[in-house]
Amino acid sequence: MQHSHTLLGQEYRLSTPTLLAVIQSACFNVLMRKTGVVFVGHPRVGKTSCCEALIDEIPKRFPNVYVFMIPAANVDINMPSYSSIVHQMLALEEIVPKPRTPFIQRQDMLIERLMIRAAQVNARHIVMLIDELQRLSAADFSQLTDIYNKLRSRKVILTVISFAMPSIEKKITLFSTSEDGHIIGRFLSDIRPLTGVTSATQLSYVLGLYDEPLKYFDGEICYTSDILPKAFSVGFRIAALSSEIWREMSKVATGNYVNNLPMEHVTQTVAYIFVILNQEDREDLVIPSGLIAEAVHESNFRSFCLKTSKPYAK
């Protein structure tokens, strides 16, 4: 199996139940022109993948909506009043203001560029996708409010669809007890949970996606038939291993990942199994004893659970 195989990269996307639910919910928010919705989930359950999927899916369903994505940068704790979101968006647009340009002018430069981008697709509606929302400061949220208001004054609606860690709840609590309470109503009142794989049945469905043709870029591939053509030809399907994979991953799952398997570790486990079986492909393929437990171990799932669950435990 070659290093360049798409299974080992980031080129493919599984239409999991979680991903499909996010797309449906986000598109409904766009349709209704809502201000904002936040999808909250623990690390590696698939938030970034969902965010990236929306970049593709929203324009397909709403061709006259301008969509862009920005991964939020870390909050500068030494300058809590500093707003980085405007500067991040300027950088995204490759706009370089002169050093002495006042902040309000920088903001206006951004608004003008957004208006141009919207006009290019004949849009009166802009969708901003933010990954890692919890990294934004109160000043960032205030600037988002200003951007929303300035666009609205020019008859353009802004919808902010965000993805965040559970720590966003602490920020919401902080805003609710300060003069920044208006921010909650604008961007943080609609919080939706985002989960990984929550049951053996769901895992079977997810693994079944490897047994069916998947689209990637301009191509299509069925991973099981491509990697294990001989075994596939006589009926082998990777979904048949779902019960054992669920059992082995559940043995080591702790904290926030009990009945909530992170997609990143699921895909790593499956990829490891494919790599090993590829070397043994034959019509009478037998799954080696201990392979699945070995695959879960190689995904580093146990260590990941132990090191990440505590900070986000409720």
Describe it for me?
The chain has 314 residues and is an alpha/beta fold. It has 14 helices and seven strands. The chain has helices spanning 17-31, 47-61, 85-92, 103-120, 138-153, 168-176, 181-188, 200-208, 223-227, 229-233, 242-252, 263-278, 291-298, 301-312; strands spanning 36-40, 66-71, 125-131, 157-164, 191-193, 214-216, 219-221. Strands 2-3-4-1-5 form a five-stranded parallel β-sheet, sandwiched between helices. A two-stranded antiparallel sheet has the order 6-7. A hairpin with a 2-residue loop joins β6 and β7 (219-221). The longest helix has 18 residues, at 103-120. The radius of gyration is 22 Å and the shape is elongated. The model has no long low-confidence stretch (mean pLDDT 92).
List keywords for this structure.
314 residues, alpha/beta, 5-stranded parallel β-sheet, two-stranded antiparallel sheet, 14 helices, 7 strands, 49% helix, elongated
Beta-strand portion reads: 5-15%
* Biggest sheet strand line-up: 2-3-4-1-5
Poorly predicted ranges: none
Query: Kindly state the mean pLDDT as a whole number?
Result: 92
Radius of gyration over alpha carbons? Answer: 22 Å
Q: Whole-Å distance between the termini?
A: 42 Å
Percentage of helical residues?
40-55%
Q: Give the helices and strands as they follow along the chain.
A: HEHEHHEHEHHEHEEHHHHHH
**SS content category:** alpha/beta
Main sheet: strands, sense, barrel: 5 strands, parallel
* Tally of DSSP helical segments: 14
Label the overall shape.
elongated
Q: Number of DSSP strands? A: 7
